[in-house]
Amino acid sequence: MHKGNSAKMGSMVVRGEVEATVEFTGKNTFFGKTASMLQQDTGMGHLQKMLLKIMMVLVGLSIVLCFTCFGYLLGTGISFRESISFTVVLLVASIPIAIEIVCTTTLALGSRQMATMGAIVTRLAAIEDLAGMNMLCSDKTGTLTLNKMVIQEDTPTFMAGVDQRALLRYAAMAAKWKEPPRDALDTLVLTTVDMASMEGVEMIDYMPFDPTIKRTEGTVIEDGKTFRTTKGAPNIIFQLCDDQAMRKAADTLVQSFGQRGIRALAVAISRKEGDDFGPWELVGMLTFLDPPRPDTKETVRRAMEFGVDVKMITGDHVLIAKETSRVLGLGLNVKDAKGLPSMGEDGKVPKDLHKTHGAMMMEADGFAQVYPEHKYLIVETLRQCGLAVGMTGDGVNDAPALKRADVGVAVQGATDAARAAADIVLTEPGLSTIVEGMVIARRIFQRMKTFINYRIAATLQLLFFFFIALFSFKPIDYYPGEAVANEEPWPEFFSLPVIMLMLITILNDGTLISIGYDNVNPSHMPEKWNLRALFMTSIILGVVAMGSSLLLLWACLDSYNPDGIFQKWGLPGLPYGKIITSIYLKVSISDFLTLFSARTHEGLFWTSRPSVILLICAGLALTISTILGSLWPKGQTDHVPTEGLALGDYTLMPLWIWVYCIVWWWIQDVIKVCGYWVMHRFNIFNINTDKLVNMRAAEAANDKKHKLARNSVGLVEGKLLNAKIQDAIEKVEHAEKAAAPGIQRKSLQRVSAGLRMSRVSGQPIGKGDAEAGRSVEDVHKQVEQLQQVVDAEIKGPAGEEIRQDMESIKKTAARLMIARKSASRQ
Question: Which of 121, 475, 498, 527 could tie 131 with a disulfide, CB 3.0–4.6 Å?
Fold first, then answer.
């Protein structure tokens, strides 16, 4: 303990005594704040909010239209019993009762798939949040790094003939190498040194580590020679040595290492001269660092490719954080705890964090020297900005931030408290599992989007079909009289039997569960619910299906008319019972075919192959519907005349219904694609800028509710572009060193210089949008010119790798240009 430090609850006095004052108790202590933050109410989940909005719209619309029908029927003299029966059946059939069940089933199937990847989901709705996650705050130690100190290759030595192997031996002689390691430094040295080389060494004295002297010392005999070795903090070891010039040079190196966050362990020896030991001589320094995991850099790059900004949060020193961030390509804008927010005096979270700290946190690449309170408030600030935030952690102090994040991820080996607070628990080390889980989550999101798109369309089709049919078609007006003398007069309004509506609903909902197994392509940008665009697509699908059903109803009712379509095409007139089964079969087939149109979203139905399970389920349901429509017994069903289409003399009617449905399905699909083209052409409902604005709660850069929406446009792409340019520079420089003198080396030097000039700022765009866009265009042009140089003058594997890197840079620059230009127009 040093002056000014505070002892935390649970600390024990090992030596000495002092008078102390208790500063905080209960919820005001360091751990008390952690407990109180865990109790903060997180509110309703994002998926629940979206489903509630959709349900409210559909239920509200259904109630209004159904009770309008009820009033109309009563007003036209229909009995109360018939009116209420029709209204209730239509209401039940039109309300998407299974929407929660199908979404939950889809999420459950997805969670099972994620579990096989090493990610156990403890809250199903977190999968939807993971699909929309655009900000990942990752703990450094153990997640981005190995959580294990490793000796670095950079080993400065100050004695002739000494290399890293010899230096490690001298360091091991300052420890009891034949016993289990006593501390982290001994573990680091003894697990790295070649223990076989220590066989001829005998230890005759040992001085263990003491905080007051900050070093260990061993006296050994090797080959009949006695000498002392010591290892410890560089500044302590330097004081033992007499060579001032060497001390100065070594101190400069230590400062250089420190600026990169690399720690050093100095080693010195003292040889025995007669009865005494000679002066201490500096042998060298071992450098060590908790290195990044081998796959972390590529994983971070992949997350950025998918539109997710990764920020590092650590309690380590800023210098260590900056070095790790640099190596991983995260950037060097690492903030310390001084500029971070704090809890209010009342212990509550300030509501204006997005105004006071939002811009700073969005621009930062990481945060260092933070406490649990800071982690929690970083997550809260980013959430207030409108971002979908993921957070990784493993300790008790991470629990509040894990609970507050949209997606809390407890990494492998996390404490019970962290696991309990998290939404996802990893069973595999590193960050790669999270990114793999994110891709799976985006596939699951696409499946839910397909279902909701279809469910809205199916609801609108049923609801408006019966609503318009009720007001527009009175079967009794089409009654052919003598042509069907053996039939009772047709009813005053059109309706299907209750059991037919229930069959349509049950078969549909049963088939929809198989959507959880459908083949989909994950989005390359974080997913968002653009409900207005989704409803518009559903309206297009529903209106076309409804219109074709109304057209068929009119044609069937008019089938005995000599000038009608049926008679002109040589089709027989239909008795009322077959009109009912015709509409039942048509609505059933249209519903299932609409599903295959809805699942491809902006593309035509053949652009994505459905899964075998979905095809089997849909095929089975369509077969059942066709058999029922064809062979339904003749008679009364729920007081409505019914008769199978294949009964009687003419048996081809089911085939013509199928042909009719398929033709209209193609028309429906083309109209859907045209609708998307119009929305994209005129940016209706911000369909173009929606995903360019990397905020879940904002659709446009000029969103008035979210002032920082513009800051999010191109933020990830800018960082990704800089990282790719830096990687390309390193590859070119490596190839330059390996190349023989000549034209190719000069070309590589030219390419390297050009790439350095191409570096652009990854900062978010502000008022100078047009200028920022032009700067990216310049990068694109510059890289194209450099690519021509590579194609013409640099051959072999090195040239091919550089070409691939440049192509990747151009693609990222193109994405950034689109984002910045779109934002600048708003």
Answer: 527
